[in-house]
Amino acid sequence: MCKNSILKIEKLSIGYHQKKQDKIVFSDINLSLEKNKLITVLGKNGIGKSTFLRTISKVQKPISGRILLNDKNISNYSEKELSTQLSLVLTERLPESQLTVFELVALGRQPYTNWIDKLSKEDIQKVELAIQQTEITHLKDNRFYELSDGQLQRVLIARALAQDTEIIILDEPTAHLDMHHTIKIFSLLKKLVKETSKTILISSHEVNLAIKLSDEIILFTDNNLYTGKPSQLISQNAFDNLFPKELINFNRTLEQFVINKN
Amino acid sequence: MENKSYTKYFLILSVLLIILFFLNISFGSVSIPFKDIFNSIFGGEVAKESWETIILNFRVPKAITAVLVGSGLSVCGLLMQTLFRNPLAGPFVLGISSGASLGVAILILGSSLFGGFLLSNSASNWSLPIAASLGAFLVLSAVIIAANKVRNTMSILIIGLMFGSLTSAVISVLAYFSEAAQIQQYLFWSFGSLGNLSWNEISVFFIIYIIGMLATVSIIKPLNSFLLGENYAKSLGINVKKSRNIILLITSLLTGVITAFSGPIAFIGLAVPHIARMIFTSSNHKILLPSVAIIGSIILLICDIIAQLPTSEFTLPINAITSLFGAPIVIWLLIRKKKIFI
């Protein structure tokens, strides 16, 4: 198992550094993620999913503990090195510019381009491939502000693909999307894991879909952190701790959450 | 695909720039035949010696100054709009020009408070630009120190604005205690002027300008990554803090030296990047940087021609012209286009 592991997290506490006392959001996170998997981070609002993803992608500092990417602590990676290992799709809105879809995806090649950002033949190939894999070829010359939320999400995934990293981390890629587009994004990610042997880590509120489509789940609950295959977590009754029980409950036979009757 | 039309626009604009440069030289309070203008620049026979002096020592330096100031301010505006991801940003938002104004105000208005030796009639031409540069540099240092203390780029914008109003307040206090003649002298400086630069001054100006422009070209890559926001830029391997400091330094240097030599010239820095984005419909800095520089030069040359009031003996303040003619054009462009970008 160790051989196949790409990301190892040891005794990690996440939160925010403050002057008087650090605000800890979640502590004692220990886990090891394997290559070539679709991993979904689940948990209710405010439990620390985003903080977790931001911490392991070095957007913010951990309170304590170690994050090892390919056996090297991410705090020892330079920004440049990390940019060839790990790419991001964030929830923040892009500033309003006139970038075309192609230009936006091509920005993913920045870690590899020269000082004036000239795209080599190989760069252009990788950009075109990413555009094909995410099925946005018809949008290539559009400005990104003309796109729908679902299309934009695929463009951002294409940008991360073009960055050619082993890991892609996506923070809530299905927020604001309808049911059809949510499933479309999930199956796209699933397909990418299969085709490109990348490790894709996402956070989501789509619990039912995540149980069906993820290879692994990291489940944040009030008292505990569960990791494992969806079936393992189901047999541990882990999902019972996800939400308060007055409105919805986890149904083990259906393997999904259902609304309580009356 | 679109490259062809970019080349076409660049060609048209470059030709326009050259035509306007010569047109600018041919207008002035003394009318000089075009043949003599041509001859004095390219070393031919000129009918009157005074004409040659006017062309070589006044009009050519002024036209060159217009090009340097116009392109420099526009590039600074582009840098600020990209850094702050705010279409309202311009070279003056950091309070740099207020700093330059403060330097000049202390020199002119403060002379009565601190003894008259600061600006006697015999003081060299250099005292104004030096005072302005010192003022700009002082505010710049304060802004950069503050910028490295705050995480959020938007806070820098507000800090810059605060420094701006602080220095304006100090200038008001100075003006209150000054005599009318000195206030008038300060007022004249604040009108802006492209003339009066000697070749010596222009060469100093030019060296700093070139340093600023080369530095700008060297950060095209981080500038483009900033179009996705700072977190994405960082994840693309860009050193955000370093790039931010370089942008601040370039802007301060260019705005400082421009304000020092030609006074605070409004509107150009804010508006030209928008005009360039509308013409080229691009946000890519490889396209925008040269186009912003050319369009900025063109617009300031036009404004200067208008300010000359051709064939009359009067010259209007350049600062008034840039806003009087520029602001309505930008308003019209924005209403027509409806959407603004960075």
UniProtKB/TrEMBL annotation, chain A:
Domain of life from the UniProt record: Bacteria
UniProt cross-references to Pfam families, sorted A to Z: ABC_tran
InterPro entries from the UniProt entry: AAA+_ATPase (IPR003593), ABC_transporter-like_ATP-bd (IPR003439), Metal_Ion_Import_ABC (IPR050153), P-loop_NTPase (IPR027417)
GO molecular function, one term: ATP binding
PROSITE patterns registered for this protein in UniProt: ABC_TRANSPORTER_2
Keywords: ATP-binding, Nucleotide-binding, Transport
Domain annotation ABC transporter: ranges: 7-247
SMART domains per the UniProt record, alphabetical: AAA
Protein name: ABC transporter ATP-binding protein
Organism of provenance: Polaribacter marinus
UniProtKB/TrEMBL annotation, chain B:
Protein's organism: Polaribacter marinus
Molecular-function annotations in GO: transmembrane transporter activity
Annotated family: Belongs to the binding-protein-dependent transport system permease family. FecCD subfamily.
Main location: membrane
Gene Ontology BP annotations: siderophore-iron import into cell
Keywords: Cell membrane, Membrane, Transmembrane, Transmembrane helix, Transport
Keyword set includes Glycosyltransferase: no
Membrane topology: Multi-pass membrane protein
Protein name in UniProt: Iron ABC transporter permease
